[in-house]
From TrEMBL:
Record's protein name: Cytochrome P450
Entries under InterPro entries matching the protein: Cyt_P450 (IPR001128), Cyt_P450_E_grp-I (IPR002401), Cyt_P450_sf (IPR036396)
Names of the cofactor(s): heme
Organism: Rotaria sordida
Binding-site list for heme: C258
Keywords: Heme, Iron, Metal-binding, Monooxygenase, Oxidoreductase
UniProt record similarity statement: Belongs to the cytochrome P450 family.
GO molecular function terms listed in the Swiss-Prot or TrEMBL record: heme binding; iron ion binding; monooxygenase activity; oxidoreductase activity, acting on paired donors, with incorporation or reduction of molecular oxygen
Organism lineage: Eukaryota, Metazoa, Spiralia, Gnathifera, Rotifera
Amino acid sequence: MQHELKYIAHDVGLHLFCGPNGSEYLSELHELVDELEDLMSITFDAKWLNIDGIRWLLPASYRLRQRIAAFRDNFKTILMKLIDRSQSDNDESDSVLARFIRDSTDCEISFEEFMDTTIEGLLAPTEGSAATFTYTLILLAQYPHVQSKLRESIQHLGYSFNLNDLHDIKYLDHILSECQRLYPIFMFNAPESASCDMIIDNIFLPKNSMVILDVISLNRNEDVWPQPLVFKPERFESITEEQRKAVHSFGIGRNRRCLGEHMIKAIHKLLVAHIVQRYEIRLPEPIEIIKRKRRPFIYVPEQRLHFIPF
Ligand code: HEM
């Protein structure tokens, strides 16, 4: 199921971003997701890109620029075809693309900006979403009593249920929060500015200093989270104000918060509930900690799992 899991956030997001016709280009878009992952990795590690002069001399720099240009051209071709189709169908849906076409005379968003937003929201977060879903499945295998408790709480739903049926199963939400606390995909948050002069641990931070939080230290701080290395979704049944502020899974506050948060929570609930209802998830052998592999901006798990049908 690695393939399905890998693209699940993209395939759900495709409908929201491009409307129903988007699925006609599914395999080309999957190739673009893979190419973007590769391009982001190379660009992230290519420190020479920032050195004036050198970047004009290195052949690798030209190859990278060519690949980025080809990636953008390919994506642009798909978007243009979808825009033509949407116009000829008189698409009145609520997709981002249909809205862009409808509002294009009134709004100031250029095609380039629309394309960049779609790359950032549709193609880029796919791998991180899959990583988060996979961490949950691994943790459920590592903690069979949590898996059993979840199965008991959804047993009455049978095999055919939808998101509304899961609305009251708060344990599923707590499992996601606890998974993101223990295994966040981002090691650091997006940079923020200090709102006033402040002193933290005897270090003076002037107003407007750029602050980047070390997410792992926050999430595993023993003073804030008792037994921080234990996967215990119950701790989210009632959290203190200090804990609420420490959780940054999808950003904090309103500004720049993750736009995909509600979609990810919904997919996570449905996916995990349907799997747990049908399969027992087991590890091939016991593990202490989950091995993680660094991708350009995130850490993804490396672990095989067994799914035993009931
Ligand atoms: C498990 C999956 C995901 C996680 C853990 C995650 C987490 C985050 C975090 C921590 C931020 C930074 C928030 C901040 O700066 O305060 C962010 C930003 C963002 N996320 Fe996600 N995200 C996920 C999936 C998605 C998906 C599927 C989409 C698209 C539908 C998405 C769209 C965005 C966008 C557009 C931003 C930038 C918002 C802005 O800067 O204004 N994310 N995400």
